[in-house]
Each structure stands twice: as structure tokens, then as C-alpha cells.
Request: fold
Amino acid sequence: MTDLLMYEREYGERYIHIAGIDEVGRGCLFGDVVAAAVILPQGLVIEGINDSKKLSAKKRDALYDLIMEKALAVGVGQVDAAEIDRINIKQAARLAMKMALERLAVTPQFLLVDAEKVDCDIPQLAIIKGDANSQSIAAASIVAKVTRDRLCEGTWEARYPEYGIAVHKGYATKYHREQLLIHGPSAMHRKSFLKNMEAEQLSLF
Reply:
């Protein structure tokens, strides 16, 4: 069984406030990329926490509430489709992470980041599959995922009901691609992503 507090214990000997940072929505055709930064109290164990992709929506919602209750600080950052098209998705994800970091009410002394580097002067460690190996990163993964899913199911679905965003969350499902062929892209679709789709989708442009 993976020890999700291994990194927190190791770096907790030198740093009190450690933030986990992760993002979601990197592979979507629609909508913002969303990142979260979470600082949990040292030694806190949240039972059931894991990579958000491995949890049911119900479990994520329950853990989200627990994280928001127990965390010392939570920050969320979003970068929209237009900016993603302008600077590319990798840079947009990093920008969303930096925004999430800057919105923390407590300044962290060290960062645990899911396979990325955040543009700041704070010491940090990039961990491959960090959301499955660090409780702090997993917590950030859950906050980012729940935040984005609620946008998909609420505001974004209401704005663009024809695409089925509430169901597929903006990913390139068969239904989503079919609706794109019928309706064309919305203002919230990532044009740079659509241009890279297979030849059958190129008729959108």
C-alpha cells in the first residue's frame, strides 16, 4: 500500500507549511484548465484520499468537503480556453498552478507538485503520479476536479446545453465530437485542440 505521507514527513522535518498542487482538464476540448493548491495540517491523515480519477463522484464530493474543512488553506486557479490557445496547454496548466498558489491565505514554505514546476521562488519537488503518491497533491487533485466538474454541470452546461458538457466534462467523447460537427465550436472550445483532431473533424473550420 502506498504511503501517501512519505513526502510530507520527509520535508515536514524542515518545513511546517507544505502545499500540494495539481491541475485537471489538461486534455479537454472545452473549458478552463483548473488547478488547486492545498495546505493540510502536519500529520493529518484523511482516510480514503487518492488520485481524484480513481474515486467516484460521490466519494470525491465527500472528500472535497472534508478537505475544505480541515485544510489550513486552499487556493484555486483557472485559465480559460482563449488563453490556452494563446500560450499552449502546458504553459496554461503551469499558470493555473501559480494562480492557485498565489490565492492561498497561508504562504507555503515548500511545494509538492504533480509532475510540473511552478514558476515561483518557493522550493518545490515535482512528483511523477504525485496524486497517487502524496496526500497533499491528492487533496489538490480532488479540489481541482470537483471545482471543474461543478462548473461543467452548472454554469457551463447552462450556457452551452447542446454539447452535453455536464456528462463528458469537455473531453473528446464520441457524443461531444458529434455535437461539435453539428453545432461547431463554442467560444469556450479550445480551437488549438480542435485543429489537431482527426481529419473527420476538420470540417469544423
Q: What stands out?
A: The domain at 6-148 is CATH 3.30.420.10 (Nucleotidyltransferase; domain 5). The longest strand covers residues 18-24. The chain is about 40% helix and 15% strand. The radius of gyration is 18 Å.
